[in-house]
Amino acid sequence: MSAPINIEFKVIPPAPISPLYITGNHAILGDWHPAAVALHPQTDGSWGTHLRIPKGTHLEYKITRGTWETQALHPEGGQRNYVQQVQQDQQILIHVAGWHDLDFQADPTIQGTLEYHHNFSGEGIPARTVLVWLPSSYGRQTHRRYPVLYMHDGQNLFDPNTAFLGVDWQVDESVERLHQAGRIRDMIVIGIHNSHARYDEYGDTATAQKYMSFLVQELKPWVDQNYRTLTGPLDTAVMGSSMGGLISFQCVWHYPEVFGQGACLSPLFWSKKHPIADVCPRVENHTGPKKPVRFYIDNGGLDLERWLMPGCQRMLRALQAKGWVLGDDLGWYHDPEAPHHESAWAERLWRPLCFLFGTE
């Protein structure tokens, strides 16, 4: 390991505000916990801290006021990461352009209507923002009811300004385009923001059980009460990628009376290295009747996607052994050239949308 070197972070907010934190992709920065490393006020109005970081470390980091809802806006726009290659002792000067909760302006090109509902909470999980996307037809066809797609990692779905890596899934564009082409039913999409507890909430854990309970007992009843929805299980689907694909599968498996369909993009189903993700045995050891649900699963072929493939293959074998049929209630797609990235999921989003709510 390279010898650590001295890095001073100096943060200049646009106006006096406190407290401030730094978090990032390294254990020294808290591994993306939004209140990981406290910054200290300086006499000149800035905030700062000194850290020793191994030379050669590639850092990606953000500034927050303690939660993801209060993260800083990047000077180049949105909530993209600050990036630094650590090579020598230095001071890193960070100018905060604004704050997501105070200054954020949604991308004006979003199609349909995107509504923000803040501070949704459930027992045992952090509060978060919930997005409700309504198709263009919603305001015109006032007696119509719509199927609902619940999606995890809501920050990444509609707006590049909020997406983790500055690339969104373009859900609004995809749904509108496919519906206008007559390929899918029009739908409402619910985007649930992740939290600093994402790994536990989306894993095969007790926290994940609490997160699913929040979706079933708190969020879905609220959505059904406030919007014109079709409430049956086959009109209620759930979708996510990576760990979001894992929790999407679990939502359907544990609550088939609520979620009748699930789409799992690049899912972390099983791994010898990560026991937090090990849901294949749940299907393999299932002795009850076949659940009346449909699953879509896909995966890429580059980088992390290769590591995920054994779990996908094992899950496909398990489901088929229990009666699911490829091309009917089980969908599978493999793109050997796709990486583990929002851009890849956006590119093939049309596939799960057509599987879940297709008209053909």
Provide tags for this entry.
single chain; 360 residues; alpha/beta; Immunoglobulin-like; Rossmann fold; eight-stranded mixed sheet; four-stranded mixed sheet
In short:
By secondary structure, this protein is an alpha/beta fold. The strands form four sheets. It has an eight-stranded mixed β-sheet with strand order 11-12-14-13-15-16-17-18, with helices on both faces.
Please characterize this protein's 3D structure.
With 360 residues, this protein is α/β, with parallel strands linked by helices. It folds into two domains: 4-102, Sandwich (Immunoglobulin-like); 106-357, 3-Layer(aba) Sandwich (Rossmann fold). It has helices at 100-103, 171-180, 198-201, 206-226, 243-254, 280-284, 304-321, 342-347, 350-357; strands at residues 4-12, 21-24, 37-38, 40-41, 47-54, 58-64, 72-73, 82-85, 90-95, 98-99, 113-122, 125-134, 148-151, 188-192, 236-241, 261-265, 294-299, 330-334. The strands form four sheets. Strands 11-12-14-13-15-16-17-18 form an eight-stranded mixed sheet, sandwiched between helices. Strand 11 (113-122) and strand 12 form a beta hairpin. The chain starts with a strand and ends with a helix. The mean pLDDT is 91.
